[in-house]
Design goal:
The protein is mostly helical. The chain is built from 4 helices and no strands. The longest helix has 28 residues.
C-alpha cells in the first residue's frame, strides 16, 4: 500500500507518508472545528433553515462551502508545521486547478 502512495505522490520514505496522512487527518478535523465559530459569527445553524424545504440539505451544503476554504488554508499551515510544505503546496495547486482555479497559478 505504501509503495503505491510513494509512487503516486513522488515521495521517498514511509515516514513521509505517515506524516502526510497525519497532516490530512489533523487538517480535516481542525477545519470542521474552526468552521463552527465562522458559522456562529454568521448566525448560521441548522435551526435557521428548519422552515425551508430541504433546509437540512441547504445547511450542510452551506457548511461544506464554508469549510472548504478553511481546509485549504489549514492544509498549507499544517503541512508547513510538519515540514511538508512543498508536497502540500503542490497538492493544493493541483487540486485547485482541477476544480477550475487554473487562473491563480501560472503554468511553466
Amino acid at each position: 500500500m505504501f509503495n503505491r502512495l510513494k509512487e503516486k505522490w513522488n515521495i521517498k520514505s514511509n515516514f513521509q507518508i505517515i506524516v502526510i496522512l497525519i497532516v490530512f487527518a489533523l487538517t480535516g478535523s481542525a477545519s470542521v472545528k474552526f468552521a463552527e465559530p465562522v458559522l456562529d459569527f454568521l448566525n448560521i445553524n441548522i435551526t435557521t433553515f428548519e422552515d425551508f424545504l430541504l433546509g437540512k440539505v441547504f445547511y450542510y451544503l452551506l457548511r461544506i462551502i464554508i469549510v472548504f476554504p478553511i481546509y485549504q488554508v489549514l492544509l498549507i499551515l499544517f503541512g508547513a508545521l510538519f515540514f511538508q510544505f512543498k508536497f502540500f503546496w503542490g497538492f493544493e495547486k493541483k487540486m485547485l486547478r482541477k476544480i477550475g482555479f487554473k487562473f491563480l497559478f501560472k503554468d511553466k
